Amino acid sequence: NAGVTQTPKFRILKIGQSMTLQCAQDMNHNYMYWYRQDPGMGLKLIYYSVGAGITDKGEVPNGYNVSRSTTEDFPLRLELAAPSQTSVYFCASSYPDLRQGADSPLHFGNGTRLTVT
Amino acid sequence: AQSVSQHNHHVILSEAASLELGCNYSYGGTVNLFWYVQYPGQHLQLLLKYFSGDPLVKGIKGFEAEFIKSKFSFNLRKPSVQWSDTAEYFCAVTVNRDDKIIFGKGTRLHILP
Fold first, then answer.
1. What whole-number distance in Å separates Cα of residue A107 and Cα of residue A31?
2. How far is CA B3 from the centre of its chain?
3. In which element (H, E) is residue A103 found?
4. Chain B contact for A102 (CB, 8 A cutoff)
5. How many other C-beta atoms are found inside a 10 Å radius of the C-beta of residue B45?
6. Cα(B94)–Cα(B4) distance, rounded to whole angstroms?
7. How far apart are alpha carbons B62 and B76 in whole angstroms?
8. For chain A, does the N or the C end have fewer beta carbons within 10 angstroms?
């Protein structure tokens, strides 16, 4: 049972380059989320999705795009990378009802560490 | 706007000391509350959660938290910390069955052996 899988684990981008952070889950969770984590700032929600074909902005969506063509996948796209996007990115998934799931409402991936120089 | 405040950014304790980490939220609706822990180099793991019922919630590893609705608070406690509790702790909340889970800025806890 893989859970939430994020790729790549590390990436260095030059300013202006684009890339896609991949996220896949095999738990048939409807809800998926992208967070970024910066020192002293906690986790900020970038985008989230409540099901295939449905996405919505979180707290800090500028500079990012997402799509949700399948239940399993929720890629995060950076079109024009900027130094301010240097961060650790976490993807997470959950059931629609957070009370479901014996352990954690949110299942996190292991993160992608992105550096933009 | 929705917000979650964690009062302590960095806490240093000796082993066996008691711990209390503050968390306040700024909504008046029905809330679901969580505490997550992130050990160095790892992703977030759930410590405990509150949906309804008994406001004193017990979690893993000896942690507990108390929901005080009148104070909009959900403070995390542990009677006696261990060196292995060194980590960053995050409070999180959802409101009125909202789809978003909002996190606080985190408290970095360092336990001296």
1. 10
2. 14
3. none
4. no
5. 16
6. 10
7. 11
8. N
Q: Is the pLDDT of residue B19 over 90?
A: yes
Q: What is the mean pLDDT of residues B88-98?
A: 82
* Token couple for B88: 């960053």
Residue appearing with tokens 């079109």: A79
Secondary element (H or E) of residue B91: strand B87-95
pLDDT in tens, A70-102: 999 999 999 999 999 999 999 999 887 666 555
Interface of A with B in 38-97 (CB under 8 A): 40-45, 48, 50, 56, 58-59, 90, 94
The rounded distance, in Å, linking the Cα atoms of A115 and B110 is: 27
CB B102 within 8 A of CB B93: yes
The structure tokens listed for A34 are 């992208």
Tokens representing residue B79 in the block: 């009677």
| Cβ atoms of residues A48 and A33 within 8 Å | yes
List the strands of the sheet with A64-66, edge to edge: A4-7, A19-25, A76-78, A64-66
Q: Average the pLDDT over B91-113 and give the result.
A: 85
Specify the range with the lowest mean pLDDT, choosing from A55-69, B19-33, B87-101: B87-101
